[in-house]
Amino acid sequence: MRKLAVWKFASCDGCQLTLLDCEDELLSVAATIDLAYFLEASSARGAGPYDLSLVEGSISTPDDVERIKHVRRVSRHLVTIGACATSGGVQALRNLAGVREFAAVVYARPDHIEALERSTPISAHVPVDFELRGCPIDKRQLLEVIGAFLAGRRPAVPAHSVCVECKARGNPCVLVAHGTPCLGPVTQAGCGALCPAFNRGCFGCFGPMESPNAAALNARLRAAGMTGDELARVYRTFNVTSFGGSSDA
Amino acid sequence: MTHKTIRVGGLTRVEGEGALLVRARDGRVTDLQLKIYEPPRFFEALLRGRAFDEPPDITARVCGICPVAYQMSACQALESACGVTVEGALRDLRLLLYYGEWIESHALHVYLLHAPDFLGFPSGVAMAASHRPAVERGLALKKAGNELVAAVGGRAIHPVNVRLGGFHRVPADLTPLAGPLRRALRAALDTVEWVSGFDFPDVEHDYRFLALRHPAEYAILSGDVAVSDGTAFPVHDWPRHVVEEQVRHSTALHARLDGRPGYLTGPLARYALNAPLLSPLALRAAAEAGLGRVCRNPFRSIVVRAVEIVHACEEALRLIDRYVPPDEPAMPVAARPGVGHGASEAPRGTLYHRYRIDEDGLIAEADIVPPTAQNQARIEDDLRALVEPRLGLPVARLTELCERAIRNHDPCISCSAHFLDLSLRHG
Ligand code: SF4
Ligand code: SF4
């Protein structure tokens, strides 16, 4: 049986938990692929190499930099899961401020804390075979990715915007109907247009879609009353490194 | 003098990672450090300068297993700073959301992380080979919890529907949730019976417990802070009683209560301080499981968790039954400068938040005290008491016992963010 490994770097565990949250599918997934290394779920540490590694979390310490190279060496395919692994995560907000300043806020002895100046995505360190977006990732997309790698094909994950999902779901557009600021037009689909379905604007937890037109959206958002600071904040949350520059557009 | 070092890889079946170092000489433990060295994520720093209504979405990302706890403690702290108290149907909906999280998180711990210890399996999935009906029951129970969180919160992990003052949208009708929850309640009762039959090591500790206490509810969403020595204080007095300090060996801070380290928060504490307020079926299940009025055996925490699942299912059903959709999805909350405190009972224990809002409606200061930071010193005490009389055991056996003793407390190491190795040194 082929082997699956799940690795964790700086993160909340939510993306790997998504696999355990596939309650109806978990036992059949385990019958198809050996969950060889998955510390959150199992004390058994099956030896590598692994056919598929799912990597959660961003690289934020010197030790992480070494460990991700090891993970790459023992993995035939490496897939990042979630905003942390794919774009540095919410902890990448330090990239705009400086890690020393951040450490001094939290710790009395920041000199005892080992942390890199920047929190970076996995792809900044090793080649990545596929990036699954979301904070957290979507369960159905995760199953699609695992299934696709087992079948030796590319995962069928859309690159279009949340707006397309909104239309498919029949959500009224919160931006047009209520003037609620929404990042849906520049955010990658995957969640099923969740926030608009709950009457709120998208805050971009799936990160940017392929070639987003942020300039057009920002003009619209300013017209809806958003200030420059608010614009900067909404882009700079869970996907700050990949959305980071958009607010300047 | 013999010198021996054994490394045992990462600690497993906990959320996040850490390490344990034990040094012993002449039959005595001379040093014991539970190390949490997951990379720090600096939430308290990155919240500075964010808008006052952003912490519920942002702090959810501290923990993927208990995001609702972060959202609820954050909401209450910020609402109290702004002079708002959420009541009535909106508070009921928050409770309902929180019960969903208790069900999914406890079911995850009981079935997939903790029970394998008692039955001799490396994982819940491996356990399914010979205990398939039990594992399937656990997964169904966990799913019922997740579906409840998704129905009220929009998504099982990092719910999107929570906001200051209430919700973005409230459900029109909750009755479709009742059927699955009634099945979950039966599964929860079976769970208590199942886990109470496990073989428990005969261990008791003289814990100092801390949990929220509410006059009318088995506290989860709000209450005062009660301590088992008979004292109690309002949440806004937290900083005067609980002080966090940095220890060299860990990125998680250690908390002291009234000057002393080593108190326990979580299911054992809640049960000890609030058991009479459990729902009727949960109380009966606890009695039938032989829990007694206070449970001081950490290995039995799995039984207390199961009892809390029963309580959560029963209370959730009661809330669904009396639900009338509120007219507005949220109470208005306007920013005003000041400080607010909030605490709620995460599945793993009391979770405290404090924020200072500045003149511009931005967060000037944030303080978050997660359960694991509070329990860490006490877990070290558990380990010391466990290891010292058993230093003669084979190291592999001792290591396994230590891992189990840590897992009893379901430490959520991602709260403090971390990688765990186990090494044992005989000097
Ligand atoms: S991407 Fe979001 S959900 Fe996933 S691990 Fe990071 S913080 Fe958690
Ligand atoms: S609508 Fe946007 S913010 Fe909301 S869940 Fe989807 S991608 Fe995330």
TrEMBL record, chain A:
Keywords, comma-separated and alphabetical: Oxidoreductase
Signal peptide location: none
GO MF, one annotated term: hydrogen dehydrogenase activity
Gene3D superfamilies: NADH:ubiquinone oxidoreductase-like, 20kDa subunit
Domain NADH:ubiquinone oxidoreductase-like 20kDa subunit, first and last residues per copy: 12-148
Keyword Oxidoreductase applies: yes
Known EC number: 1.12.1.2
Domain of life: Bacteria
Keyword Lipid biosynthesis in annotation: no
Classification via Pfam families: Oxidored_q6 (PF01058)
PANTHER family according to UniProt: COENZYME F420-REDUCING HYDROGENASE, GAMMA SUBUNIT, CYTOSOLIC NIFE-HYDROGENASE, DELTA SUBUNIT
Protein name: NAD-reducing hydrogenase HoxS subunit delta
The species this protein was found in: Nonomuraea coxensis DSM 45129
Name of the coding gene: hoxY
From TrEMBL, chain B:
Keywords on record: Oxidoreductase
The protein's enzyme class: oxidoreductase
UniProt KW Oxidoreductase keyword: yes
EC annotation from Swiss-Prot or TrEMBL: 1.12.1.2
Matches recorded under InterPro entries: Ni-dep_hyd_lsu, NiFe-Hase_large
Molecular function terms from GO: hydrogen dehydrogenase activity
Coiled coil location: none
Disulfide bond recorded as keyword: no
Pfam families: NiFeSe_Hases
Protein name (database record): NAD-reducing hydrogenase HoxS subunit beta
Species of provenance: Nonomuraea coxensis DSM 45129
